[in-house]
Amino acid sequence: MVTDIVGTSRLIALHKHLVRLCITLLLGVYAGALWASTASNVVTTEHMSAQLVAEHQELTPGKTSSIALKLNHHPQWHSYWRTPGDSGMPTQIKWNVPAGIKMGSIQWPAPKRLPFGPLMNFGYEGETWLISDITVPPDFAKPSVTLSGHVEWLVCYDVCIPEEGLLTLTLPVGLPGTSPIANPEAVQGFEKLRTLLPKKADDWSFAAVSTSAGSTLSIVPPQGQSFPQSVSFFPYDEGVIEPSAAQTLSHDGAGYQLSITDSNGTSVSLADYKGKYVVLEWMNPVCPFTQKHYRSGNMQALQSEYRAKGVVWLSVNTAEAGSSSYRPGSEMNAWETEMKAAPSALLMDSDSSLAKLYGAKTTPHMFVVSPAGMVVYAGAIDDKRSTNIEDVKNAKNFVKTALDESLADKPVSISSTQPYGCSVKYL
Predict the structure, then answer these.
(1) Measured at the alpha carbon of residue 137, what is the angle toward residues 131 and 138, in degrees to the nearest 5?
(2) Could you tell me if 399 and 366 are in contact, meaning their C-beta atoms sit under 8 angstroms apart?
(3) Which tens digit of pLDDT belongs to each residue from 112-156?
(4) CA angle 123, 120, 234 (to 5 degrees)
(5) CATH number of the domain at 271-423, please?
(6) Are 35 and 97 in contact (CB under 8 A)?
(7) 34-195 is a CATH 3.90.190.20 domain
(8) What is the pTM of this model?
(9) Where are the domains of the chain?
(10) 44 against 349, higher pLDDT
(11) 364 prior amide bond cis, ω within 30
């Protein structure tokens, strides 16, 4: 009987020791998880850097947290808002996350107006955070989540450079029902960012009136609240306003009036090609967006197809002599030969006169002119705003659609889109 009692006591002591050991190990694992990295690898280019930053030290089943794409631009370089303005391309993230995890779209902070020659773009300079929400399902049972984002951005100064990078971040998953612990290194960043996100102005009064000349936005602040010193209108969608047009603020006693110019079609004279359809294609051999459509064979195929149908195709290079994008006529002809391009003519617009006449903003920027000299289409070549050659085969080609409808004596269904590409610089 005494032996049994001693043996039982030893078993109890051993059991307590093992329990303490398990608890110690679990606490060690949990503490290690809490101190896991809350930031991803950094992708650094000659013009900026990009990194993912977590709002919390861990994710919690059944709750939503946020992940920030932290962009640091070198001085004088900028990237773009969701609506880039006259030219440019918004930053994009393609997420790869475990099944059940949901990633929200980018929440865009207020941009800056960024003059670029005669153009007006909307975007960011310096340090910028773009956040996306991440939601973990209540029944998520894995100890951690690894998310990766393939990020593409266009960064511009005197030239525009498309860049990309793969960012990967692993975060521990806490217990259901617990409150996530804030990432101390990111608290200020997330707080500052959220002050820059759009907010619903419930107490303000807004009204808009549109005419053929443009639109006027009437703004009345709440009683007793002073009006801001300056006001800018940023369109959430493309094609709503003319970005480079002046926005005039005036006071009418009750409130303020902000006048905004709409985009309108242009009537031109093309006496040399009277009675023919004409395509004007702004291009630049050093621009990656131009290269996309030539190295894929897309532009040459369009040129050949529609010249065979009697369409005049004019390629236009607007570049001031001495600029980084300028190429003399001989080099331009050599490049056209190398690319097996087939325009009716290549025009050297070194004084920007043709670009100013049509309002060309990007390379490429496409115009289809009717036999009567009316612009029946103006805008992007297609709906894939990227430099990826693979996107060409799945793109909706607006120029092809406009030409096919015009040649069939049908009205053009899409007469205007927002162009994308490298900016045309006026002399």
Answers:
(1) 130
(2) yes
(3) 999 877 778 899 999 999 999 999 999 998 999 999 999 999 998
(4) 60
(5) 3.40.30.10
(6) no
(7) no
(8) 0.62
(9) 34-195, 205-260, 271-423
(10) 44
(11) yes
